Amino acid sequence: MRFNKILYGLFLAAIARVCAYQDTGDDDGLTVTTNTGKYTGLQSTEYSDVREFRSIPYAEAPVGDLRWQPPVALRPSTKHHYSHRFPPSCPQYLTSTLTLWNTNISDFSIATAGESHRAGQFAQTSSEDCLKLAVWIPRNASRGAGLPVALFVPGGSFVTGGVEVPYQNPAAFVNRTQKHIVVTMNWRVNLFGFPNAAGLEDRNLGILDVRMALEWVYANIDAFGGDPRRIVLWGQSAGAVAADVLDFAYDDEPLVAGFFLQSGGAVREFARGDDALPTNFSFVARHVGCGDDDPAAELDCMRQVPAALLSNFVGAYGDDKTRPALRFRPTVDGRLIFGNYTARGLAGGLARVPALLSTTANEQASLSKWNPGVNVSQPNHQHNPPPNQTQVNEGTLSDFVCVARAAAVVRAAHNLTTYRYQWAGNYTNLTPYPWLGAYHASDVPMVFGTYDLRGGATAGQRRAAEALQDYVFAFIEESEGRHPTASGLAA
């Protein structure tokens, strides 16, 4: 009888532990409570000292009436979610046109779950319900740890990109330092992010997505062990442009301790007026049965068209090389995107925080017109001739080096701490053709620590990657900003 009572007592104790676990989320630190919900992540499959929260919404789903509207903040919630799967990327099209990016260096593109990177259709791994982010933290991080944070905005020419990109998984970087947190995010691109529709007041919606994600991180990162006063906004390519746009648009309330602008920046010319092609949206509308001279009616009709149909129309139009081209990119609106960034910057209209600016030595090589020859799998000059190097040099200077220099000049006028680096590494396992050299984005896997994703990395490459990581981490760790003054956001 006494033995049965002991068993019964042990049973009750076990039940109590289970209930306590369910109530408090005490599961080896894998459950975190934020202002908008409770999220259970998982231990990294490759790095036991890293925890991953792979999908956390930072705004309401931009669907239905919220399509082509500014992101809407989430309401407070205590609902529990399992954050085990990466979120779908925002709507995007997988072009059938052969490029370096969808053949030889496709690990810079969103994961496609077996679908061809050259499918010529709406990506099955994308969805309108996409305004979500992912968080990577050291295993021992906990609320109040005060770790510095990097919020990464992925690039993709304002057309593609998202959280689940193989070369942009920061688990290795976080695992190596054990002293910082990395957040990556989705944001709306192409027609869905920059519609430039006549019926809209806000047309640069993708930029507003980045700001909303930043606000969510600022208000909630303490729960993961991060310090909201030590957030560095880090963008690459189009993501760097978006990050720097916020530098100027929210100069009095940046919410960040610094900016890391990797091969991109705002001190450039943006489309405006006739150059912005404001009729593009109406052109698409007419071809999907929504032609209407009334902008409000046109917009209402377009919100009822399936996302895949819209994406496929715009994408196929580009695949067919139809002219004039359909382009949906950031446009000057005088609120988020300005007409003269040099003048605005020199007048003091930028955040007073440090910045790290970077370029690669041969940026334009992977962005120039490419002749794939007869066999895209064989990296040799005979079948895969390189682009004109003079044109590559001109594009590298005008589109990247001069942009970085202009940003540095503007910042120097206000004695703002500014660092620059040029990446010139050329490693066989990342560079399928020798003529590519240090092409656009070739430093991304080095910083993220994913350079050996497909094998073949050398010891020298590892040392170079770790040195680059050390410099980037030092910038993230040493940057310290200030609290907002007007938004009322609370960590």
List the SSEs and their pairings:
Elements: H1 2-24, E1 31-34, E2 37-40, E3 42-43, E4 50-57, E5 80-82, E6 93-94, E7 121-122, E8 132-138, E9 147-153, H2 171-177, E10 181-185, H3 190-193, H4 205-220, E11 226-236, H5 238-249, E12 258-262, H6 280-287, H7 295-302, H8 307-319, H9 341-346, E13 355-360, H10 389-412, E14 418-423, H11 444-448, H12 459-478
Parallel strand pairs: 2-5, 9-10, 9-11, 11-12, 12-13, 13-14
Antiparallel strand pairs: 1-2, 3-4, 4-8, 6-7, 8-10
CATH homologous superfamily designation: Alpha/Beta hydrolase fold, catalytic domain
Beta-strand residue percentage: 5-15%
Number of domains: 1
Shape, principal axes of CA atoms: globular
Give the helix tally: 12
N-to-C terminal Cα separation, in Å?
55 Å
In the sheet with the most strands, the strands line up as 3-4-8-10-9-11-12-13-14
| Average pLDDT rating | 90
Please compute the radius of gyration using only Cα atoms: 23 Å
CATH topology: Rossmann fold
CATH architecture annotation? 3-Layer(aba) Sandwich
Instruction: Please provide the ordered H/E string of secondary-structure elements.
Output: HEEEEEEEEEHEHHEHEHHHHEHEHH
The main pleated sheet reads as: 9 strands, mixed
Highest CATH level, the class: Alpha Beta
Low confidence ranges:
1-26, 482-491
Number of beta strands: 14
Fraction in helix: 25-40%
Signal peptide: 1-20
Keywords: Hydrolase, Signal
Region (Disordered): 372-391
Family: Belongs to the type-B carboxylesterase/lipase family.
